[in-house]
Write the C-alpha cells for this entry.
Amino acid sequence: ASAHPSSEKFAAEVNHASPTERAPLWKHSIVTAIFEETTDLFQVGEAVRIAFDLPDPPPMQVEPLDAERDWIAHVQKNWPPLKLADSFEVLLPWHDGPSAGCRNNEGRVVVRLEGGTAFGLGDHPTTQGGVAFLERALAITSDQNSGNHQVLDYGTGSGILAIVAARLGARSVIGVDVDSPSVASARRNAAMNSPDGSTLDFYEGPADFTSAHEFARGLAEEHGNFDVVVANILCRPLMALAPALAAAAKPGSALALTGLRSEIGDFQRIKQAYQDTF
C-alpha cells in the first residue's frame, strides 16, 4: 500500500490515537494482489467492503499477468545482494557468494537468509538503522568487549538483527516475535548463521500488551537483564511495550526503537512513553 496523510486533521487523528485504537494510517491505500484466473473478483470486492464497512466495493483495475514468465526467476533476478550498514551483506538462497559468516571481496560479513515472508531482509531503512545501531553499541574497543553483552531483539521477524548481534560478538542474544511463523523462520536463519561463542534463542511472545510485561520479566529472570535492546516494530506497539522493555533492560542499557514516522509526531510520542523508564 502506498499513500500519505492528506491533511493535518488526519495526521492529528493518528497522532492522538492510543496504542490499542485502530486509527487508519492512510486516507487512501492502493493494494496489489495476484489471483487465480477463475477467482470471482465481485466476491473479493464484497469481502473487502464488508470487512472495512464501506458503502461500496473499492474500485478495481484488472491486468492479466504473463503466463509464460517464470515469476520466481523474475523476482530473484530483480533482488540483488544487499549491503547492510557498514559491516554486513545479506545473501539469499539464489545468490552466489561466500557462506554465512565469511567475508565477501569488500570485507563485509555475509548473512545468509532463507528469504521467506518474515520481515527483515535488509532492504528496509528501519532494518538498516537497527544494524547500524548494533554496530555502534557492540563495537569492540580497548575499554569494552562486546562479548559481555546481552541483547534483546523484540519484534525479531526474520531474526536478522539478532543474528547480526551474535555476529558482532554478543554473548547472549534473545529474539522475540508474536508471529509463530516468523519465530520459526528466525530459528532456521539462525541455524545458518549462528557463530560459535554466542547463545542465540528465539521465543514467541504474547500478542496482547498486558501480558508482555510479565513475559519480558520472565526473560530477564531466565537470561539476565539485557544491556542492549532493539525493537523494530511500529510506534503504537512500541508505546505499549515501554513497560515490558524496561522490565527486561538493565539500568543504563542502550536502546534503539525503529519504525517511526516523524511527519505524524511519532518521535515525540515515543519520547514521552519512554522518558520515565529509560
Remarks:
- The longest helix spans residues 209-223.
